[in-house]
Amino acid sequence: MSNYIEGYICRCCGKYHDELPMSYGGDVPDYYYSVPQEEQENRIEINDDLCVIDGEHFFIRGCIEIPVLDGEGPFIWDVWVSLSETNFEKTIEYWETEGRENELEPLFGWLSTSIPCYPKTINLKTMVHTRPVGVSPYIELEPTEHPLSVEQRKGITMERIKLIAEELCDEEEQ
Predict the structure, then answer these.
(1) Burial call 34-73: b when 16+ CB within 10 Å, e when fewer
(2) Domain ranges of the chain
(3) Omega before 74 within 30 of 0, i.e. cis
(4) Are the C-beta atoms of residues 1 and 21 closer than 8 Å to each other?
(5) What's the pLDDT tens digit per position in 58-75?
(6) How does pLDDT run across 83-115, given as a tens digit for each residue?
(7) Reported pTM
(8) 129 compared with 116, residue with greater pLDDT
(9) CA-based angle 75:77:81, to the nearest 5?
(10) Residue 143, class by beta-carbon neighbours within 10 Å (0-12 exposed, 13-18 middle, 19+ buried)?
(11) CB contact set of 47 (below 8 Å; sequence gap of 6+)
(12) Which segments of 3-141 does DSSP mark as H helices, in order?
């Protein structure tokens, strides 16, 4: 899922990086961290694509794709979105169905990943667009003035992607 461009010298750490990452993501929905570690095994069912917490909170993993204005793209945020139980069950029902992208209408969800480099992203409104079997859903943000939503609609530059990489490098170094 990741595309790369040639390397760059990071202003944060001063090191040369061979590639500029074109995707970032979270391994779990943020709500996962609210469950005490010693209880996670009993309360959370999770795989690479789906997560259920306490049998009442339902999440699906998908991609916020952002057009790249001056390079190859898209730039991708791999995120988790909460779904209603009904929409989660519908997703499961069609999980292995060829042509599912033509059967399921977009599903409403709430963004459930804190994305660095932006103001608060938890609970932004989304639409989850099912894609062919084996392809992560496309996550469409509600068209608002939130910077992430604006970037999804209007695109970003390679310089912005480099700034994101440097900001995330800074977080990892601390």
Answers:
(1) ebeeeeeeeebebeeebbbbeeebbbbbbbbbbebeeeeb
(2) 24-155
(3) yes
(4) no
(5) 999 999 999 999 988 899
(6) 999 999 999 999 999 999 999 999 999 999 999
(7) 0.88
(8) 129
(9) 145
(10) exposed
(11) none
(12) 37-43, 85-93, 100-103
